[in-house]
Amino acid sequence: MATKKLDETATGVFAIAATPFTDDGALDDASTDRMVDFYLECGVAGLTILGVMGEATKLSPEESTGACRRVVNRVAGRVPVVVGVSAPGLNAIRSLTASVMDIGAAGVMVQPMAGLRTDEQIEGYFHMVCDALGDVPIVLQDYPPSSGVYMSVPMLNRLFNDLSSLVILKHEDWPGLRKLTKFRADERADRRRRASILVGNGGLFLPQELRRGADGAMTGFAFPEILVQVCARHAAGDGDGAEDLFDAYLPLIRYEQQVGVGLAIRKETLRRRGVLASARTRAPGPALDADDQAELSRLIDRLKTRLRATELAVPEI
Amino acid sequence: MATKKLDETATGVFAIAATPFTDDGALDDASTDRMVDFYLECGVAGLTILGVMGEATKLSPEESTGACRRVVNRVAGRVPVVVGVSAPGLNAIRSLTASVMDIGAAGVMVQPMAGLRTDEQIEGYFHMVCDALGDVPIVLQDYPPSSGVYMSVPMLNRLFNDLSSLVILKHEDWPGLRKLTKFRADERADRRRRASILVGNGGLFLPQELRRGADGAMTGFAFPEILVQVCARHAAGDGDGAEDLFDAYLPLIRYEQQVGVGLAIRKETLRRRGVLASARTRAPGPALDADDQAELSRLIDRLKTRLRATELAVPEI
Amino acid sequence: MATKKLDETATGVFAIAATPFTDDGALDDASTDRMVDFYLECGVAGLTILGVMGEATKLSPEESTGACRRVVNRVAGRVPVVVGVSAPGLNAIRSLTASVMDIGAAGVMVQPMAGLRTDEQIEGYFHMVCDALGDVPIVLQDYPPSSGVYMSVPMLNRLFNDLSSLVILKHEDWPGLRKLTKFRADERADRRRRASILVGNGGLFLPQELRRGADGAMTGFAFPEILVQVCARHAAGDGDGAEDLFDAYLPLIRYEQQVGVGLAIRKETLRRRGVLASARTRAPGPALDADDQAELSRLIDRLKTRLRATELAVPEI
Amino acid sequence: MATKKLDETATGVFAIAATPFTDDGALDDASTDRMVDFYLECGVAGLTILGVMGEATKLSPEESTGACRRVVNRVAGRVPVVVGVSAPGLNAIRSLTASVMDIGAAGVMVQPMAGLRTDEQIEGYFHMVCDALGDVPIVLQDYPPSSGVYMSVPMLNRLFNDLSSLVILKHEDWPGLRKLTKFRADERADRRRRASILVGNGGLFLPQELRRGADGAMTGFAFPEILVQVCARHAAGDGDGAEDLFDAYLPLIRYEQQVGVGLAIRKETLRRRGVLASARTRAPGPALDADDQAELSRLIDRLKTRLRATELAVPEI
User: Fold this and answer.
1) Which residue, D126, D188, D186, D187, is CA-closest to D162?
2) CA spacing 20 to 30 A to D223: which of A1, A125, D65, D117?
3) Residues in chain C closer than 8 A to D251 (CB atoms)
């Protein structure tokens, strides 16, 4: 299948997809198909699989390529599929990349290996990775709470200038609003070639980030259609409309932004929306208890009540 | 002045106070007085000074006691004043505690020293501190993002059972909702004596936390009157009213929850509200740039617009 | 092959084995065989493979089981083989354990997953792992510089009392001398059932640790015959003889104790001793440069000069 | 007193001095005087006070200046005295620096504030500090195990080129041998102006580091006269003589290299040598127990036995 490769023009919402499991922990192909259909109906511009939210480190290499094939086949070229390939060894990164590009992925996502400290070490790492992956387009994931690796804008500029396969910055440093502004400004000042900026962190600052120059979001919020509309309204010049919609969902967005248990909240929300058959995560992984379930129900009920008082659409859930 | 000491019955909102500086970085007594008056008008149940938000580590011992005296005198016994006394050495903790209790503080706040890892080390530390401080009431600050120290509920139970001077848990582990539920449940199950639970983290989950058993909040949100009302509505059985009010302010609460720069946002907001003469922090410390200022203005404008469409009061700012 | 399983009576030196690669990074079976023969000739009491030093995270599952099979077959039951099975997901731990036990391993080594903080979390983790692994004997690796997880003696006591499959503590907390003493003392005081204590950290404190109650060492020093003799002399009551021998090698032991590059030093030393065909590590991994090579040569030359002035044997290298 | 200021020509051994306390924790002036005399008799090239080993964070500002005055007066200009001034706030750094330079210190030592991550942040920090301190000569302490801040050679080069008050690198990254080589080589290649390199980490790799271009050591080993002689022999071209002497003391050097408890070992050793009246550290701080004491005694006895078999001098202790 001739899939368009990722490039620096990416905009809109790339949904970070969970990896659906059955209640006994096996890969759930039927839920995977429904999930792909769901995301496409939401209007996403792309899909990202096998990231932190995809529990990638708990899959065997065979499961990883299997899950990728299922998604890519179902997407059938309608949007690009990005695959997380971060791993401790370069061999694993290279071999998973080769597999998923062969399957039809549009590019891969790489976060710096844990333990990298100085600019010099980080740059050395990405040079090594990019050398190994040839011309495969790469999303550079800048997510210090997960990686423990911190990257400055000057260093990111050097990386994007030196390594042509880097095309998207997944921006989720926190706090990172000023960093985003500076990264974009350096591009306008010709200190760096064009890069797409897609924001993560559950989209918690999406309206602010769009105004500061983000091109979109790459995140796993369980109502991705809302982020799609926020981006669309912003692009249409309706900043307040975008933020009104966003703010209506902010209590939930905030609620999902709990490290660890956030994944279980998202999977459960997708289950309630009819997308996943099971909210299960693989051990050791989070699960909701009765209090969490009631709390989530209440937040969703309040959301619907609030939306009914507006002209905004009320989701079925 | 006969100040009532802190105890485990504490409820409501304890405002975490910034330390006001003039534009050239000196202690600003006039702003301190205005700030105390402001907080009392907001209806806070107490004040907490010289914490992380008070830039305590950038004050000399003389400045610390001076700032404390100014606040305590202005409060004049109307609410309890808690003073952060965390320091690398036990001598400093002991001597600052003696000074501030002598001045009229109602108790002190202690967070575990950086570098403590195991339950055994943490327990040893608090036993040592409590031994040194005698019967001074203590707020145990559980704030891993700042301390790097992680505390489980079973260990907190042991600490509160063993050390009678511990009376309040400042709960700001994150994610920590389930932890709060468990801590409260263990009390109901007689696994621990009564302790007050006041939540931090900018109050980002305050409605959820109140329903899970929190007694109030201890945090530095620059609209403390709102947190006071949220707590009051919750206490009056109006959970939805509490959360409606909270959600209206959530975009700002979320915005302040940026580590580091959040302090500058709070000081600037208090400056705009007429409380502080200057938003200055001491070096090395954060400051807002033009983009941040415009962003904050926009968030406040949107808040007022939103409130005008409701029966809720619109703040003057 | 009926291999004796690991148990709490383990003593002596378990050599932590590197994973031999050819110059182009493939598994090197011939070197693996030579390495096994070498260790057995050194008199080791056991072998540990696929640990940090074995670059386990850079091997595919097939390579891991292949490397294990090669070692186990070559050992042919003469000493127990322990296999590191730490992984982010429980599935991977369970499946690798099943494979290597089927191949003939005597037990597995597990270090706590990164990110565990409190005693409660760590205990929960090991209960989960032990439940999953049934009666497979387990070496609990206590190596905070690698895991970031810190364990107190009281918690280790609870773990070993509660989980009968834990049989050996690989002790390499640092500084950890007092911890070792306390762990052993608690056993003598019947606060814990018997456990074997094998020390790591390159053996840097081996004489001290033997006197404090260690049963032996589990480490990757490239002259394992020396550690074997140190343990033997100690066991024979010749503490000074043990320490004299140890001290003669201390400059090299110290030199290998450099995190990261230490692995390259060990592999190069084993290459010079005729054990490995190549000192290569897998990317991203350390390699010696000309300065390092000269420095290592000098240290080895000085060692030989020093030994020639004594009655101690001079190694061929 | 006209004290010669620190500059980039520094060589030899700067002793990192403990802060002597009496058994009840007060500053011990008599021991301080004896300690100064002792270090000068050892032949040190300078003294460094109020560092990590000096328990600086447990002293009040008055105690810090008092301790500094006592040392500077006793030294009476014979060698330069360097004072650690690291603190969370710039005000404290500036004011302590002003005080100690006024007293007669030859320069100050600064380590980067905890929490600095990227090259950009670290450079910004040192620019701010150097701006604040004017032309006071500065030792840049590069000690990641204590600071959590990691610095690359290219960034150090930029710092030393940009900031003329930086004159000495206290090098104690670990492993750091290659870093030292590169830092020196960049100087020879005119990528950086001259800087003195004094090594820390207890001197554990001193002979290797001298051969790689270090100018000396700045460390707290309790037999500083040995490090002085090692440096002198190296400078005289007798590399093997230097290393023979070093290796004889290596078991003790290694033993002191235990983070935390190492300070108690050093203070106790200095007590036994008649320098300090008490080995006490301030709470929370380490203390030796009976096992530790016996272990230290044994190591010292073995050292003396070993030295008696050589032409090397046997210390009185």
Assistant:
1) D126
2) D65
3) 243, 247, 250
